[in-house]
Sequence to fold (486 residues):
Amino acid sequence: MQYDQFYLFIIQKLNSGLPAHLSYHSTQHTLYVTNKAVHLAKEEGVSGDDLLILKTAALLHDSGFLQNHLEHEAISCEVAKADLPKFGYSSTEIDRVCELISATKIPQSPKNKLSEILCDADLYYLGSSNYPKISELLFEEYKKLGIIKSRFEWLATQAAFLKEHHYFTNTAKLEQQEKKEHQLAEIKSKIKEHVSKKSTHTSQQLLQDLALNALGVIIAAFALKCFLVPNRFFDGGVTGLSLLLHELYHINLSVILVLLNLPFIILSFFTVNKQFSFRILSSVIFLSLVLLAIPEIALTTDKLLISVFGGIFLGMGIGLVMRTGAALDGIEVLALYTLKRTSFTITEIILFINIMIFSIAAFKFGIETGLYSVLTYFAATRTIDYVVEGIQAYTGVTIISGKSDEIKYELVNHLGRGITVYKGERGFLPGHFEISTEVDIIFTVITRLEMRRIKNLVYRVDPKAFVFASTIKEAGGGILKRRHAH
Fold:
């Protein structure tokens, strides 16, 4: 066995062939494991050919990363079978090397003294004072590979792994076990701190939601009592229907709002969730109480001002309530329920209901009132869109570049966006139609404010990249918030 010559060969191969994103499974890691294997072997009384086999396996145990991080132990054995015969290793010796490499696969499964030593050397750092630094390298690598998504997930993964792991050799147990348990205690402490901060943040968010919900209800009540009700103007949805019944039959507006929303609140309990239905109920009841407290005062008699500003204030109030995960109008619940049983979209269902409301208003109170009510509804709807989504309206961005791998990495890890990749071809230029190359077409969804940032990011990587954007009219699923109808 020509170990020294093979050592130079494999280290050079790892230095030139390992991908740059492998911050943990680098050549440095291989050298570390080899050194610790020699140390443990000395303490455990291993020498001669057994020591050479152990050191060879240590040098090769992560060589599979030259090709793929998945099933790298099996690939490492293939590397061993391809390269070791060139340095005088027999088939029996190669089989022993492969047996040791296979034992390092998590969960580790050593079957003899040599494999126990290699397994302990591979994870010797778990009880090292350098554990935080080394584990950070593994965290960065796992993030780049998409194995770990967040810091908290990494803490939980470390805690679980350290708890289940145990050393096999007496030397490793004596030298590292106590230190490893200390590392586990440190990680558990960080997890508790993270959970505590998250709980505090949740409490603060709840208080903010309550304050925002109360403000939204008050603004909506102000719009109704000081603009729409005194001037017989109407809105869409359950609110518009309540206004209509209030004018036609002189039913108390506070009472009719609760009664008309109640069936939809019950429906939301079964079609959405219990929390959402409770939030709608509490918001509607609070609105009815505020309406009882606010006197009916006509701030203006100008129909255009009433229509526009009544809609703006009403939309502002409804939008603020929506931002807290609640609603003041159960019409969306009905639309969602009907959507599951018909071929109509939510927009079409709500539009049909509102057409009936405005038609009745026009028939009973005049065409002018009906038309102004449509304007009120439009002003309210546009205001809701702005309050709920604001400047965070979404834009779809498509990127075509010969440096797609670098751009994908930047988008995910630096901009923090999810991406979708399509397989395509680029080229087919006038005069060179026969020339084309395969390319990854990247699609992502961003907010309007991020457009300049993403363009700067892309063009920094590839000044010749082709980037185009389109407005997202409607989106659902994923990490996007659904556009609220009114």
